[in-house]
Amino acid sequence: MVDKISRNWVGGLSSGMDTQGLIDKLMQVEKIPVERLERKRNTLSYQKSLLQEINLKLFELQNRATDLTFSRTFNSKKTTSTNDKILTAAATTSAKVGSYTLRIKQLATPTKVASSGRLAGPLEAGHRIQSAQPLGGASTTLGGLGITPGNLQITVFGGGSHTIDLSTLNSASTAADLVNAINAQINADADLKGKVQAGYDTRTNQVRLTLLDTSKSMTVSDSGGDIITRMFDASSAFTLSSTVPVRASNLVQMRSGLNATLGDLGIDPASKLILIRGGDSVSLDLAGLTAASTIGEAIQALNHQIDATGALVKGGVPTGNPAHRLVEFRYDASTGRLVLANTDTADHTGFTLTDDTASQPGSNFASRLFAGGGAAASTADFGLKLISESFPATVRSGTMTIDGVQISVDVQNDTLQTVLARITSSTNVNATYDAKSDTIRLTRKDGSSAPIGVGSPTDTSNFLTVTGLIGGSQAAAAEARSTANLGLTLAQAAGAALGTLSPPLAAGVTPGTLRVTVNGESTDITYGATDTLNGVLDKVRNIKGIEDAYYDASAQRVVIRTSAKGPGVTLKVEDMWGGNLASLMNMPVTSVTGAATGSTLESAYGLSNIKSSAMLSASGLAVPVTAGTFTINGVSFLIANPAAQSLDGIISMINNNAKVGVKARFDPAVGGLELTSTQPGNLSIALGAPSDTSNFLSALGLLGATQKVGQNAIFSIDEVAGGADQVRQSNQISDLIEGVTFTLKDVTGSAGETITITTDTEVARKGIDEFLKVYNETISLISTRLTEKRDFSLEGLSDDEKKALKKEDLEAYEARFKVGLLAGDSTLSMVRSRMRVVMAGVVKNVDKEFDSLSDLGISTGAIGSAYQETQSGVLKVLDEEKLNRALRENPDKVAELFARESTTESGRGIARRLKDVLNEFTKSDGILTRRVGRSGVANSNSEMDRQIRLINDQIIRQNNRLVNRENALIKQFSDLESAMSRYQTQSQAFANQLAQLTGGK
């Protein structure tokens, strides 16, 4: 056997024959068996692809038959509404045909909670001192609550007893100190850490002890003090368990903000203060107040002393008018802290506040609120360059116009105060910034109410728009002012009892009631002969809707002013129940109203805004957010680093959580955060948890904010419960009518709206039509393949013949050659026959009127049709109305015909029966699949694939034989050429010798 022959040879050099040509012709003869095998293999491949095409079609038909076995195909329902903008519905197959009339009285709405007030601090605060902590609440002292600190004992059932050492606490320690001390001891005890925790609930102003590990039970009791006895349980002990995992300090009331008392804060009511401002030293005190007096009352008392001190009022002459103060005490609701600040943020005069322990050793007002050493100095905040301020939008440089005067704005170099100073010096208005309202005010210098013009078409700076001056209001408040002088001094108004003021008052004061009515809402204030005028006016100032109430000593008149402005605002001050104070104060006898135009134009909104895209630490929040966790609806969120997370990022974190049940958004118009429940109804949003360690919710003004609780849907259905009202927490109602879900969209009229449910025949008809379409395509394809006439003059192509043809010529030849390859195929004959039997069959044990396809108007042809028309087995809908009527009136019976289940073949529905028959051919080990495999599946082990692999193996062996044969022929001819070359060489040598012997003759 020849294994390898070099092809680097040239034949016929010695013999003169075309050696390679002779070899090629011999090999062509030798290759005939290989070509025969290739033709056979390629023919098998054609047959396989044709059968796989049919197998796929059978599988598609099987799927269409399966669709007809589903109840939804025949029992689908459709709904119509008399007004789909108000009411819609969806119905499942289990819904019954009928009509339902709904009367919708109220839609369900979601619960919302928004930040209480603006979150941003003022653009600039000027010189001020701010209390170190929010007033009251967690800052309430234990002594103020009457609590004697002492250790606690925690006994874990089955786990021993643990002492909580609180020896560092004293009567001056706060509720926050108590919480921190308890948690420090718990965290230091491995047996308690993670099982119980103390916390302060800012919504209820309560200390809470919470069992974190509800698999445990533990008793908490006093051990030397009365913390538990005074705050939690008079028995001095309580138990935390899975049934009662939280206990709150219900026995004590902890007040916060303006309601916190001096006693709550541990402040001595006898305290005296020294306020040093601009070289002037002024003494202040809390005279007349007690431990039960509130911070609100302390602020009023201190500010009255400021009003009476020339060094602390504008012009140096006390008038009692709050607008004349140079410095004042305020409560900052956004931070919950007490502030002492210059009233004009442009005032650069600093000040200090010190406890006067020299004259009153127990003085501790300043030390308790502002500074541990009893002396606090003001810090200055004069704002930033305009380009860096937290305006609602970015201010552009350019020019603006006020009262016809053009003012320049340079955002890179100007501050707010330089622009306001430029306005004041260039126009007839005074421009000021009010830190309390965070607004700019333009006031006529002459006090007139002439409209102040803002803006011009030629303006190039947007300063007036950004600061809300364009769109701001110049309306005036309703002001009730004494119609005649009272003749009182400031000291008399502040300190003299009403019963001693006649004269100068026109008559003696009769105790009674002063009624103040603002926009129709009345508030009564009772007074007696021992009350002071300022004391009564302080109560008036605290009435909702009143901005100010004071005695103006310069005009010797009482002034009461509303906070709302405009001609629609009304105010009336009158005597009730025998009193005569309103009359003696010369109050107008009729209501006074506001005005459309006053002397002051004010920004339409607060100027400072939160930068939601900036990091929390640089976002402009008045209360800095701390790191830690916060909880909404029981879902905990982590703020790892306020310097690396933005409010927008926190909002996204909330909105991307599928479990929290709320959506968050920042409203730049009001500068606050809003949470909205994703589910409507009267469900509250649970804010915070005892385990929270971040102040995010309180800093964003959500803790304690009033929730606008959603409302439930209220509706009735005439056909349910006699039309009685139904209440649901959703606008999707699916529990009243089986298979029907109503969607409430709006309130209906008294007549209501009607939903009508009918059988959806279109679904069934579409399913039948698609089934018949695929069935006919399948049966036609099978019949065509079985009856095609084969052109036996055409042979399968060998591989070389296929390569020799152009692509389009090869495709055309193959298409002609494939015709008739499956003619008479036994498998196809079997499947066609069985398909025809199924479709022509009768279903037993169903309604006789609907036990065959012909009862639906479906058949291969009308009665009397020629055999040629029906022999293909193609099904037609000969009676459209008959089929549609059956689907409309008897959908269940049509469903039975197609989909009935039975243990016997004759009892099964036609679609189910056909599905089973086709499955015998198309399943993985089905008759046809075993023969040809599945299309697109490589390495199939079907019968035809095995035949093709066998032929391929034969071809490989034959090709190996041909290689060996060709190599042998080459060697033989090579040897022949070599022999002939030797003979020629020898012959030539002999001839040369002979020539030499004969002498060339």
Automatic annotation (TrEMBL):
Keyword Coiled coil: yes
Pfam families per record: Flagellin_IN (PF07196), FliD_C (PF07195), FliD_N (PF02465)
Annotated compartments: Bacterial flagellum
Domain Flagellar hook-associated protein 2 N-terminal: 15-109
Domain spans labelled Flagellar hook-associated protein 2 C-terminal: 710-984
Residue ranges that the Swiss-Prot or TrEMBL entry lists as coiled coil: none
GO terms of biological process kind: bacterial-type flagellum-dependent cell motility; cell adhesion
GO CC terms of this entry: bacterial-type flagellum filament cap; bacterial-type flagellum hook
Keywords of this entry: Bacterial flagellum, Cell projection, Cilium, Coiled coil, Flagellum
Subunit relationships: Homopentamer.
Name of the protein this chain belongs to: Filament cap protein
Source species: Candidatus Ozemobacter sibiricus
